[in-house]
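Our preliminary data section would be incomplete without showing what the modeling component actually yields. Below, a chain of 493 amino acids is followed by its predicted structure, encoded as tokens that our downstream tools consume directly.
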Amino acid sequence: MGKRGGNDSPKPHLKPVEKIEVSEKHVGRRAIAAAVFLLIGVGAFAYFIVGLVRGEPGWTEITALSSKVNCSGDFIFLYELGTEGGSAQSEKQSVTAVYTAAAEKAYWMFENVRAAGDVAEDDEENTVSADKTTADGKAAAGYTNEIHGCAVAEAANGKNALPAAGSVRFLNDHPNEEVTIDAPLYEAFAKLDAAGGRWLYLPAVYQTYNNLFASEADPIAAEFDPRMNEEVAAYFKEVLAYANDPDEVELELLGDHRVRLSVSDEYLAFAAENGIDSFIDLYWMKNAFIADYLAESLSEAGFTHGSISSYDGFVRNLDGREVNYSFNIYDRVVTGQQAAQILPLAVLQYRGPVSLVYLRDYAMNSLDRQYYYQTAGGEMRTAYIDPQDGLCRNSVSSLVSYSYDDSVGCADILLSMIPVYIADEFDAGAVEALAGERGGADGVSAASAAEDADGAAAPAGAVYSIYRLGNEIHANDPAAEFTEIYEGYTIVK
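Predicted structure:
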């Protein structure tokens, strides 16, 4: 299993390895290697870690301290304490409290899950069942934060804070009702709506893929694979006729954080007949939105001396100081008749706040495997589903995309890259266009932008990418610096 430290980390001249480790070699004052996945066993999670420089204390992993269900198991949060001259212990307590609260709230907002019992066990007098809402679609008093983790609404007397009913699961349980949701979830839905894709409406397809990914052998996997099973393909055709039709299912954004999940009677009947209990689901995309929410919560509280990374490749570096960070570039490479191997192709060096998305058609760790299946013949099945036919597609094996613009988060990058990645052929022109100048949603440039190698401001909203074509590692960021390039590979800018 992977481990911290050690002098036996993979080098470019070594043979390909599947075990991924981090070197402790000196890389400069407070340098951070924050992008290497570790496989740390069944039931644990994989994460990016800091390569601590000897003699420079302060870096620590912040963990959520909560007895409540939360999303922190999908993330690693690394933070340098004590840099402001105060008590490191006090700072750790404060940053932990903010992170814990955000991790709890994010879980219930973005995950498509129900809480057992659907009421708080400690507030029996002032609780209601999930189906009791007021006339305007808001939850009756007492619908608890334990269930949906949404923002609290002030009670009439201004003293008691009551949670607003609203989450992905709550909306699925209350189709055709007007519901008030939290601003972060509303903003996530707005971004998905602006992107124009129908990925949100595929939970019935995702449900089948979950069975495929959990399969232990090809004969079992084939029962759930639309490429191998005509019945599954026919079922997908029926499901997608509903999922791709806004008249059948559509999440309406009504303003003031109000939404309505409109579902036709025909789709409701089809869902009941086929055991479908969800009409929307963020599924594999959810951690992009959660990473942004966690980062924004910490930044608003003033805690920016660190980096948050998810096991499935969504990274938010909050650090605006002159601290060196690095991201390891991997790819699944097939050479001749040999089995595919995951190679450490290069290390990207960077500084400053960065949002990064790492899309890939291979599992890097144990948790990853919930979204991947590899056949005995080496073919990959992934969660990157095309809404048009329900087939998974990956235009390249690996795509790393990132932005220095603080107005561009992981979700923004992901939604801009999905049409490029979930495709039969890779569109290098589209990737290059995203690296050029483009305004935000309102056309206004970000107040702060990264500088390129010559000191000129980078294009506002620019999303840069790194991908491999043959033995060439393509990078369209003029300021990108690479080290430890794998033997036989070249960087092309």
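The first strand starts at residue 32 and ends at 33. The chain is about 25% helix and 20% strand. Preliminary results of this kind motivate Aim 1 of the renewal.
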